[in-house]
Amino acid sequence: WRCVMHCGDRYTLPAGPWALFPFERDGGDIDRMVVQLLTDSAEGFKAMTLPRKIGTLVLGLAVAIGTVGKYSPHLFMHLPFPFSIILWDVTGNEMPPYFMKDAWAENEIDSWTKDGDLVVATGAKSGTTFMLYCTHQIRTKGADAKDELWPDVSITTPWPDLRHSRAGTWAEQKDRLNTTLVDGKKMSFFWDNPEYPMRIFKSHYGPPVLPVRKTSGKKIKYLAMARNGVDVLASFVPFYSSHTEEFRNLWGGFPPEVPTAEGMCDENCQTVKDLMPGGVMSHTYFEYIMSWWPYRDDPNVLFLHYSDVRKDLKGSVEKIAKFMDVSLTSAELKKVTKQCSLEHMKSVDKFGYLMPLNTDGAGLWDASKDTITTKGAMTVTGGVGTGKARFTDNVKEMWKKAEEDKFGHDPKLLKWAREGGPFN
């Protein structure tokens, strides 16, 4: 595995298990080397003892898995859950499997961004769709429910982190963000419309993936937002189950359905396992907050707490508008605040997250209509402090300890992560 993962590009076969399959390397004729390798391997395998045969097969399986994991990890998505995700994860691929960082690389970001762009980089299940729609309302000074520039959240506020196809890459998706047709118009009409004072993009990353302090190139602003951890954990429970079967089938059964006993979740709930430190999704909460905390006072960063925004929506709209350099009259502020409300968002309900750049086809995904989440899943009541009702006392105690372990070195950080309020 180590040989293939780190040396395969150079056809280097170091001493070790490969000594079982001796061959000559004269002239660098790779085709002849492979034929000789296979022939000698077959003969050598016949002569082996049973334990050595088993060891060789295990080695071969490890090499095969490592090779797929490095060069074609999307093939794992053909397997049933959880094998698909286990193999994806253990071969070093990012979780979840539909996330990718490439768009934000320092040598890439200037190729597609503009000065003044806003990246809504909120934590997972911390008001992302809420902030995307609200910032769109601010830049349009109150678009109504029939807003023709908002066919879907993923069209008007694109998500560069999202891998639309199993083998998708940012390089092949980037150009099609402009040319793909949506409702008969080029997709760029919706997200790069000349009427906008700025463009808005979605991300779930934090620094250093997002080059917040990049000293040259495009001037970009970042709106980040965290949320009480137990509320995040509680929001993940129905969120896992709210993904459509089409999306789940596309990504090897992930995320799985989350059964709960009478609405309660104990330590065996998949979301609890995934978000606790060491879990495959823990970085979406703990590492996310810690990554943004040192940047909270940067001039191009607005770091909010979900509870503060929900408690004072009007004041938060004013703060966000000022950060976006958008002037609102008192009438516009009143209208935008209303449009940012959960009640208004429910009346719009264009938050299913289409994936128009998907190229898998063949019965896997209909790019014109299939969505990531089920209808209404992104406009459920986003409570503050209500998550604890979903978990057993043991889970709440486990989470409390995890917060103290991760944030306890800075009492201000620990308090803010739980409650919001002023940083100091």
Task: Kindly describe this structure.
There is one protein chain. The chain is mainly alpha-helical and 424 residues long. 41% of the residues lie in helices and 5% in strands. It is built from 19 helices and six strands. The strands form two sheets. A four-stranded parallel sheet has the order 4-1-5-6, sandwiched between helices. A hairpin with a 2-residue loop joins strand 2 and strand 3. Helix 15 packs across helix 16 and helix 18 crosses helix 19. 33% of the residues are buried. Mean pLDDT is 89; it is low at 1-28.
Task: Quickly give the structural class.
Answer: mainly alpha
Most strands sheet: 4 strands, parallel
- Backbone shape: globular
What string gives the helices and strands in order? HHHHEHHHHEEHEEHHHHEHHHHHH
Tell me the fraction of residues in β-strands, as a range: under 5%
Which spans of ≥5 residues are poorly predicted at pLDDT below 50? 1-28
Features:
single chain; 424 residues; mainly alpha; four-stranded parallel sheet; two-stranded antiparallel ribbon; 19 helices; 6 strands; 41% helix; globular; disordered N terminus
